[in-house]
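Design request, tokens follow.
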């Protein structure tokens, strides 16, 4: 019994000895029963906590990766025997048909670690929508992790790899916070180099992350993973390279093959494997023009957009798209600086982007009835499903997306 709860019954039998039990035997039996009860109760508490932590961890991970045009993905999460680990992964659609791929690992295990993982994943997703560069995102995430330490009183440390693939340029930019670099293979299974330097772990408050960039031909394969997958195997990266060098196999089968090769049995730590096969954007899905800084060019921009929509068979979107293009180009001419570019992308949605050389960010405000201006971005926000601003090395891009029937 433990805390007035009966956990079981123990029976003692004597063989080949006719003597009855005495007081010493009874004392020993009581001690054995007490120790057994405590051990069973501790095991039940541990199993209950492990089940809660594992369930919470699984609930905080993404259900299924989103369906995208420019990447095919497959992900596996393998719970460890300790339960409630801090491993996570994510596939995040970004503006301009770009996509972010990320994996991370919070140090430790248990309910608190699973909760910290959920907070970091939410913070990363929120930051990613703002479209910062990978190294800038990790610096902001490092500050967020430090604030978690202040709030909970317990140190939070995590590793993270964050990569962004641009299907227009076919370039992948990656940065690492103490995380292992990805394994990258070309379309024919040949290894490619993409090894960002491992910066400080998240939560140290030191920052200073660096990003590397590599061009990926169509059909390239990226493998992002956590330490739990490779810790038990000697030469794990070489095993991954060998297992994944079969471009004709489906991603799910490749993921299963990699796990069976690296983890023949369940490990103590959680393990995550995220595979992504890249695909550049076809030229017929992209149109781009450079415009002079002249107010008279706004009409030209509208006509270019209308003709391009006719070419794509999207005449139904001509009216709203012309309004959006007119507003964005007007703002770039009035408040921005050359070069001014208009770009349209037909993906799972229709994307319109206007770039200029100024870093001044637009501000959405609610114009009053007596105001003469200030309604342009409100109009764009109402016409588009999503809109935003991203900054480059020089200048900014205002983008918006319109949904297409059937995606």
């Amino acid at each position: 019994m433990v805390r007035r709860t009966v956990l079981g019954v123990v029976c003692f039998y004597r063989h080949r000895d006719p003597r009855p039990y005495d007081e010493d035997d009874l004392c020993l039996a009581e001690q054995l029963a007490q120790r057994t009860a405590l051990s069973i109760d501790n095991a039940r508490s541990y199993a209950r906590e492990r089940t809660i932590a594992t369930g919470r961890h699984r609930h905080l991970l993404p259900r299924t990766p989103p369906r995208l045009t420019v990447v095919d993905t497959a992900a596996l999460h393998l719970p460890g025997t300790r339960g409630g680990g801090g491993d996570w992964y994510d596939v995040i659609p970004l503006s301009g048909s770009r996509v972010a791929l990320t994996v991370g690992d919070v140090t430790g295990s248990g309910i608190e670690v699973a909760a910290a993982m959920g907070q970091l994943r939410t913070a990363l997703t929120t930051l990613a929508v703002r479209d910062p560069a990978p190294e800038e995102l990790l610096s902001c995430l490092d500050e967020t992790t430090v604030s978690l330490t202040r709030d909970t009183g317990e140190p939070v440390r995590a590793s993270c790899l964050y990569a962004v693939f641009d299907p227009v340029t076919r370039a992948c930019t990656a940065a690492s916070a103490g995380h292992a670099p990805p394994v990258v293979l070309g379309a024919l299974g040949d290894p490619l180099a993409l090894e960002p330097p491992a910066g400080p772990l998240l939560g140290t408050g030191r920052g200073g992350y660096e990003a590397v960039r590599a061009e990926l031909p169509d059909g390239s394969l990226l493998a992002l993973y956590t330490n739990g997958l490779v810790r038990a195997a000697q030469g794990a990266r070489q095993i991954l390279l060998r297992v994944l060098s079969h471009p004709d196999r489906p991603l799910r089968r490749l993921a299963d093959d990699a796990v069976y090769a690296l983890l023949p049995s369940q490990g103590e730590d959680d393990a995550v494997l995220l595979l992504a096969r890249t695909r550049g954007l076809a030229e017929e899905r992209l149109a781009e023009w450079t415009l002079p800084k002249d107010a008279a060019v706004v009409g030209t921009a509208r006509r270019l957009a209308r003709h391009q929509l006719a070419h794509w068979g999207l005449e139904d979107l001509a009216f709203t798209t012309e309004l959006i293009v007119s507003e964005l180009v007007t703002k770039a001419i009035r408040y921005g600086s050359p070069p001014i570019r208009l770009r349209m992308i037909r993906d799972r949605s229709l994307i319109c982007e206007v770039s200029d050389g100024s870093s001044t960010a637009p501000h959405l405000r609610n114009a009053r009835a007596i105001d003469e201006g200030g309604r342009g971005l409100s109009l764009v926000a109402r016409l588009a499903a999503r809109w935003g601003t991203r900054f480059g090395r020089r200048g900014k891009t205002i983008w918006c997306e319109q949904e297409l029937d059937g995606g």
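Comment from the thread starter after seeing the answer: thanks! The chain is about 35% helix and 25% strand.
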